[in-house]
Amino acid sequence: MNAPLIDPFQRAITYLRVSVTDRCDFRCVYCMSENMTFLPKKELLTLEELDRMCSTFVGLGVKKLRITGGEPLVRREILSFFRSMGRHLETGDLEELTLTTNGSQLEKYAQDLADAGVRRINVSLDTLDEQKFADITRWGRLPQVLRGIDAAQKAGLRVKINAVALKGFNEVELPTITQWCAQRDMDLTWIEVMPMGDIGNENRLGQYWSLKDVRAAYTQSYTVTDLDERTGGPARYVRLEETGQKIGFITPLSHNFCESCNRVRITCTGEIYMCLGQEDMADLRPPLRNFPDTNAPLEEAIRAAIALKPKGHDFDYSRQSLDGQMSRHMSHTGG
Ligand code: SAM
Ligand code: SF4
Is the pTM of the predicted complex or chain greater than 0.85? Predict the structure, then answer.
């Protein structure tokens, strides 16, 4: 094995998140505008290029691969990519292959994903109310997603629900969503809404709801114990003693966990972002596409990029202005 990827702050890079498309069959109001211009297909890495890219990272010590988007399961033939990545699970070089999905295509693909070696998935779902679901996703339909979750559990996939915390939107659903997850034995993580991309003036559907307040809301109905667990990501966890449930909180805006950050992101065009909250990136497509017969230039470019991984990000809501606001969409870097 080649020397592992270590950044200038001595963090080992073992987790790669890859966006395989910028397209999506939903238009969540906090993520996209209704009329999105998507990239021309030739800009995207082909499935073969994605395979080479991910396999190169695995060769450099990446142990966990998360596939995201856009909606990863709307990319044509994406299952062949999952099957192909499964070979790294078989050799043990890769420990986990997973994805983040809106769930719309799970009814069709859950069993194939399980067969490819996927064991756990994250499904994004912000409300259990059919009308509110249609409002927040614009194009999504709740029953389809619920059928997808059923199919995933039936296929033996462990499902974690990710809900974006939106004041005045799903605030009132906190107990319902929590109980629903408990009944179905699914973990639940709340995500703080981030200032990403130009999404038009759609804030009326929900506003920043600080996870400190979400946690406080839990204490009204439950005994909440903070857990020490860390995953190298921006999540922290509590346990609800009454149900034994573990609830996660992802506060990307806090700097708390940058020091243990173990991840980088690749966009669907092959750009590597060393930090979700920084504009710094490097384009890995030229060394990949221009050298089809050797991965050496790609490896060199990856190492050069990792050497530039910043210490942390600059998001800051505390001054009431969105300092550090990002101009790119979440669907570009893949959340
Ligand atoms: N389409 C898939 C999905 O929705 O799960 C994967 C891509 S989506 C960009 C990944 C995650 O980013 C989702 O959980 C979504 O809720 C979250 N997300 C999108 N825009 C966000 C924002 N502005 N702030 C916080 N989370 C956001
Ligand atoms: Fe699509 Fe996911 Fe963005 Fe919603 S959050 S628009 S499902 S990419």
Answer: yes
